[in-house]
Amino acid sequence: MAGNALIMYETSTDGVTLRAALAGELDLDDADQVRDNLAAAAQASTYQFLQIDVSNVTLIDSYALGALVSVRNAAAAAGVVVSLTNPSPPVLKAIQVTGLSEVFGLPPMNLMSEG
């Protein structure tokens, strides 16, 4: 089944933050395109921060999570700090299971989960 990931960009008024919002299913079918698009945006921008809102991501697989790590690394090489914001339950679970909270600027697992 083909994924249906969608990226929307918004510039911030602070002049240092580029915001991107991902929506839909982020899986093997979309991961390379999403990775390339976000990495290119980070590398071509004059912004210092790339915030990726993942509140509307309904599915994320390990390949797509790896693609987001690649975006983070490519952006870091360009001097841009990447963070994920508003993780949806599927994204939050994937990040918790893989231990990538700090990589994406999220609180450690024990601070994000209840009980």
Care to give the gist of this entry?
By secondary structure, this protein is of the alpha/beta class. The protein contains four helices and four strands.
Question: In terms of topology, how is this protein built?
Answer:
Elements: E1 6-11, E2 17-26, H1 28-44, E3 49-60, H2 62-77, E4 81-85, H3 89-98, H4 109-112
Parallel strand pairs: 2-3, 3-4
Antiparallel strand pairs: 1-2
Helix pairs in contact: 1-2
Pfam families: STAS (PF01740)
Domain STAS: 22-115
InterPro entries: MlaB_ABC_Transporter (IPR052746), STAS_dom (IPR002645), STAS_dom_sf (IPR036513)
Description:
The chain has a single domain (6-98), classed as 2-Layer Sandwich (Transcription Regulator spoIIAA), CATH 3.30.750. Helix 1 (28-44) runs parallel beside helix 2 (62-77). It has 4 helices and 4 strands. Strands 1-2-3-4 form a 4-stranded mixed sheet, sandwiched between helices. It has helices spanning 28-44, 62-77, 89-98, 109-112, and strands spanning 6-11, 17-26, 49-60, 81-85. The protein is α/β, with parallel strands linked by helices and 115 residues long. The protein is globular. Helix 1 (28-44) links the parallel strand 2 and strand 3 (49-60). Helix content is 41%, strand content 29%.
